[in-house]
Amino acid sequence: MSAREQLHNDQEVIRKIVSLAEQCDVLSEFSSVELMSVARYLKVQKFIISDAIVREGEIADWIGFIVEGAIEVVKESTKANKNVTIASEYKSRLVGELAILDGGKRSATCYARKPTVVLVMSVDSFNLLAERYTSFALRLTRAIAKHVSQRLRLASGQIVDLI
After folding, report:
1. Contacts of 1 (CB under 8 A, 6+ apart)
2. Which among 17, 31, 65, 127 is placed 20 to 30 Å from 25, CA to CA?
């Protein structure tokens, strides 16, 4: 099924997605009217405790906006031959945000730490959104880049503290 066929038009579903989207920091800067226009490009995914939301090494083909719950971000350490928790993310944060920016492979595995709800946007849906709502897509990309920048600054500080 193509991304165009996956878009939904059910107004009740769209209103629910908008309500959830308004709870996410990255999406909260957009108006309800804007979110109504783009909600059809999002899907609601629910995860139970310990579910793998994304797995390290998988193709990064979607971004998620955490609207309920919490996740643990785990990276495989080849040096120590074990998995290391590198972050915890909570409601209003992102998961898989590099998918929109680089389309590479997942750099870590994320597990649900408690029941978690994520608004998911595939890269294909994002590309369709960018064709139709260019200004929104640009603002969303900037918001994602800002989020990534903040995480990079935090990680840089943590690295320095280890040296």
Report:
1. none
2. 127
| Paired strand residues for 108 | none
Record the pTM. 0.83
pLDDT digits (tens, 9 = 90+) for 93-130: 888 888 778 888 998 899 999 999 999 999 999 999 99
Alpha carbons 33 and 15: distance in angstroms, whole number: 11
Q: What's the gap between Cα 72 and its chain centre?
A: 14
Question: Which residues on adjacent β-strands are paired with residue 64?
Answer: 95, 120
In the numeric block, which tokens belong to residue 7?
Answer: 């878009």
- Give the DSSP letter string of 96-107: STHHHHH--B-S
Delineate the domains of the chain, giving CATH numbers in brackets.
3-154 (2.60.120.10)
Cα three-residue angle 66-16-52, rounded to 5 degrees: 30
